[in-house]
Design goal:
781 residues; alpha/beta; eight-stranded parallel beta sheet
Length: 781
């Protein structure tokens, strides 16, 4: 045994250190997968052509990883829509309403489960832990019968092996996480716990593992991120039983159990003692606590540790010397230490080298998926060969980190002085809700069950072409603004014809609800090619929050005022809230996130006040990310919710009592944060509820939520058009939990991704449903 150059007291590795990642972006450099899938949906691309495009993207990914120095590539992480849906197919847990479609055409049936059809609703969608990725929630019942189907997994492993990737590692969602993230199927008692199906599910996983071993897998990774959350003794016992049973299988590859996004806590000794061959642990952010915890349980003697020291969720370069120190410590805690990203690189863009319009000085601070893979490879080489082998890389990394620290972009004295001067009074409305609501109702004059939309209307091909023409210089700013004005006129005219009560301008000028504002604030960087999957074929380009934030000029006031000039009905001002501006950006990691949130909130406060001064009686500040950013451990939540709700109030509390503040949230489990929702002090909240059949309305009622709310009745993530009676039935269900004087009628979310014909029909049905239910209300004396 010899000492390493990184840490003279550490034991050198006894085998070559490998570099790996948990997963890789799926879309391709030009979003080829999105285009192929949407072409298939529209009938322009055959199933064969779609499969061919997907296979080429997988091959390109494996080549990129090999070129970056990755020794062991993941397989099975590629998906046409969602890896949880792929797992549902793998274990045969298909919803009854979709079984016939899947049997008739597996690919079309797969997409039907994701998107729904006119006859069958899709699976519910919600956020993947505290990320902005959405997964499709499995629906299980006491009589669910699981059947193994490893076809996708073995085929993709075979592709990688044929390409020459001898160390290819299939990655599967683990059985415990799969069941913990599932929900009772429609018609099943809501207190049914899918985890009770574990004994029935494990033989299916055993069969899949045997199939993968026969197909050439030496290792298989089973992802168990649900174990970083607070778990009951019964759930931990289930995890112990699952990995005892799988670990004792005779016909299996070696098993690597992976967990990420936070510290494992009480689940770590459970997995450390399990008869599996290795663990993959996150050592970034709050998960850095895994280092001391691993030492406390005696490490992993004789087992493999895949150490996630490269942050897979943010875009900043790694501190290579800091990571080397962590890795050197870990050498004494496991039989074999390999280097990895903290989680799948699905959550970051593909390649920072494509961003040629970012200042080269700033670009030195950035690492996207390709660069992060290379960082993992560099660290593996340094750990295996000593720091002398990577001395040039370490020197360049030190210089890049110092450049960022010294940059004037990261420190604006005026911004910091204003933030430091904020007081508690700045985060409170002039009057409490119960005293200002009468003034708002008098000013607005709305009927019971007022109808509105969440904000965006379809982003048509004409709008996208206009933005492209402006960027390319084919049209000037005046011509572009004429097109935006025409779109606003069309949107307002339709809403008036349909009979909506509170209108929106449609957001035709906005490329994205975060990027649009980020491009107008100091401290943010916009990318051209930094696409990240949100769900299915929905990709976003999260801006990069690199420095202190200020608002040089109004951002949305002009077009809101223009829309209001076209109608006598109230038009909502539409903004994105401070928490979402952070959550859907790559946030800076060189100061507390609460300070960054305060800076963004102050910039938004200026915009809110100018919207009000310009005549807006209703202003919506969306916070869909409030729940998704909730820390995974309960002990960390009070601190987060304190600064998050304070930031929202700071952004919105400067208006008069008769100005109505709305907020919106979508696709999350809201029951955990209803107390925090009340702390926002918004007058009206709209929430996703259609796929969960108004569950959130009952949660609001159970909490005693005293404000106005619009649980969504129209699922905008499906192309199906809901009928007026279907929508009326949901409104009636909402009325069982929320009084008529506090219930709004609205869609689940914005309409940006939908087509005009389905939007028009659905909103007309929404208005008709609201009018029907209004007539059923008791007459006021």
């Amino acid at each position: 045994m010899t000492a390493t150059a990184a840490n003279p007291g550490a034991t050198a590795p006894t085998a070559p250190v490998r570099a790996t990642v948990h997963g890789y972006p799926r879309q391709g450099p030009n979003r080829e997968l999105k285009k192929a899938v949407e072409g298939y949906w529209e009938g322009r691309v055959t199933a064969e052509a779609l499969h061919s495009t997907a296979a080429e993207l997988r091959r390109a990914n494996w080549r990129q990883l090999a070129d970056a120095g990755i020794d062991e590539v993941p397989t099975g992480d590629f998906s046409y829509y969602d890896h949880m849906l792929d797992t549902t197919v793998m274990v045969g847990a298909l919803p009854e309403r979709h079984r016939a479609a899947v049997a008739a055409d597996p690919l079309a049936g797969y997409f039907a489960m994701a998107r729904g059809t006119q006859e069958a609703a899709p699976l519910e969608m919600t956020k993947w832990f505290d990320t902005n990725y959405h997964y499709l929630v499995p629906e299980l019942a006491p009589d669910t019968v699981f059947r193994a189907d490893a076809g996708k997994q073995t085929a993709e492993l075979g592709e990688a092996l044929a390409l020459g990737a001898a160390a290819a590692r299939p990655v599967l969602v683990g059985p415990v996480t799969y069941l913990l993230l599932a929900k009772p199927a429609p018609g099943v008692a809501p207190d049914f716990e899918p985890l009770t199906l574990l004994e029935r599910l494990l033989p299916v996983y055993a069969e899949v593992l045997a199939d993968l071993r026969a197909a050439g897998a030496r290792w298989v990774q089973l992802d168990e991120p649900a174990l970083v959350q607070d778990r009951t003794p019964g759930e931990l016992a289930a995890a112990a039983e699952a990995y005892r049973a799988l670990g004792e299988l005779a016909d299996r590859p070696r098993l690597l159990v992976a967990s990420y996004f936070d510290r494992l806590g009480e689940a770590l000794p459970v997995l450390a003692k399990a008869p599996v061959d290795g663990l993959a642990l996150d050592f970034t952010g709050p998960a850095a606590a895994n280092l001391d915890a691993l030492a406390a349980v005696g490490g992993l003697p004789g087992k493999r540790l895949v150490a996630g020291v490269v942050d897979g969720r943010n875009v900043w370069i790694n501190g290579l010397e800091r990571s080397m120190a962590t890795l050197a410590t870990l050498l004494g805690l496991a039989g074999q230490v390999d280097v990895a990203t903290s989680c799948s690189l699905l959550h970051v863009p593909l390649d920072a080298r494509a961003e040629r319009r970012i200042d080269p000085q700033v670009a030195r601070w950035l690492a996207f998926a390709r660069q992060k893979a290379a960082e993992a490879a560099t660290l593996a080489r340094g750990l295996s060969e000593g720091t002398g082998a990577i001395s040039a890389e370490l020197a360049a990394n030190r210089a890049d980190l110092a450049s960022r620290t010294a940059s004037p972009l990261t420190h604006d004295k005026s911004v910091r002085a204003r933030s430091a001067a904020v007081t508690e009074a700045d985060t409170r409305r002039a009057l409490p809700y119960h005293r200002r609501t009468a003034a708002q109702r008098t000013r607005l004059g709305l009927p019971p069950l007022p109808t509105t939309t969440i904000g965006s209307f379809p982003q048509t091909a004409e709008l996208r072409r206009a933005r492209a023409d402006l960027r390319a210089g084919r049209i000037d700013e005046t011509a572009y603004e004429q097109r935006i004005a025409a779109q606003i006129r069309e949107v307002v005219a339709f809403q008036e014809r349909a009979g909506l009560d509170v209108l929106v301008h449609g957001e035709g000028e906005r490329n994205d609800m975060v990027q649009f504002f980020a491009e107008q604030l100091t401290g943010y960087l916009a990318t051209r090619h930094g696409w990240v999957q949100s769900y299915g074929t929905r990709y976003v380009r999260p801006p990069i929050l690199a420095g202190d934030v200020a608002r040089p000029r109004p951002m949305s006031v002009r077009w809101t005022q223009y829309a209001q000039s076209l109608t006598s009905r109230p038009v909502k001002g539409m903004l994105t809230g401070p928490v979402t501006m952070l959550a859907w950006s790559f946030v800076r990691d060189d100061q507390p996130v609460a300070e960054t949130a305060r800076q963004v909130a102050l910039a938004l406060r200026d915009e809110v006040c100018e919207l009000e001064a310009g005549g807006a009686a209703v202003i919506q500040v969306d916070e869909p990310a409030l729940r998704e950013t909730l820390p995974l451990r309960a002990a960390d939540r009070p601190g987060y919710l304190a600064w998050a709700t304070a930031a929202f109030r700071l952004a919105t509390s400067g208006v008069r009592p008769d100005t109505q503040i709305h907020t919106h949230m979508c696709y999350a489990e809201f029951g955990d944060i209803i107390g925090a929702i009340e702390q926002l002090d918004a007058d009206v909240i709209s929430l996703e509820a259609a796929r969960s059949h108004m569950q959130v309305a009952d949660e609001l009622a159970g909490h005693g939520y005293p404000r106005e709310a619009g649980p969504g009745v129209y699922d905008i993530h499906s192309p199906r058009v809901p009928g007026a009676e279907e929508l009326a039935a949901l409104l009636r269900k909402g009325l069982t939990a929320i009084p008529a004087d506090r219930l709004w009628a609205n869609p689940d979310c914005g309409l940006k991704t939908r087509g005009w014909p389905e939007v028009q029909a659905s909103l007309e049905n929404l208005v008709a449903a609201a009018r029907t239910v209004r007539r059923e209300l008791p007459r006021q004396s």
